[in-house]
Amino acid sequence: MSIDNQFEPLLSGEVLSVDESTQLLIGNRTFRVDELVEAIRMQFEGLEGWTQDKNGWFSEKGISAEVLRFTAKGWQKGTVRISLEFVPEETETQKSQPLNTSETSKKQEELPIVGMMG
């Protein structure tokens, strides 16, 4: 399976940490996904011709669009939005050992519950 098929969308509150040399629009190496999306939106908002409707690109709702996909037989109507995607690196142990879901679930149940930040 190619790496392109393994990417998964990140949720807005999830946290990224990037190398200092690859920082983009955010002054910190560690930030939430929604902070980067907002910084990108703010860059566009300052451009001439920006409208409130164009903010939809960066919302959970997205904007109406049509797409001509490689796997389709014509244009397909739908919704599009800008998001970040992530694919984890596999360690040697992950590659060689099948995931034991009951063992993983038991370990997760043993973890302490930490209060949410507000």
Task: Output the keywords.
118 residues; alpha+beta; 3 helices; disordered C terminus
Textual characterization of the structure:
By secondary structure, this protein is an alpha+beta fold. It has a domain at 3-56 and 82-109. The protein has helices spanning 33-45, 92-96, 101-110, and strands at 8-9, 15-17, 30-32, 63-68, 75-80, 85-86. Strands 1-6 form a two-stranded antiparallel ribbon. A two-stranded antiparallel sheet has the order 2-3.
Helical proportion, percent range = 10-25%
Strand content: 15-25%
Low-confidence stretches: 104-118
Global morphology: flat
Question: What is the residue-averaged pLDDT?
Answer: 78
Q: Going across the major beta sheet, what is the strand order?
A: 1-6
Q: Note the run of SSEs as H and E.
A: EEEHEEEHH
What Rg, in angstroms, do the CA atoms define? 19 Å
What's the total count of β strands?
Answer: 6
SSE topology:
Layout: E1 8-9, E2 15-17, E3 30-32, H1 33-45, E4 63-68, E5 75-80, E6 85-86, H2 92-96, H3 101-110
Antiparallel strand pairs: 1-6, 2-3, 4-5
What does this entry show, briefly?
This protein has three helices and six strands.
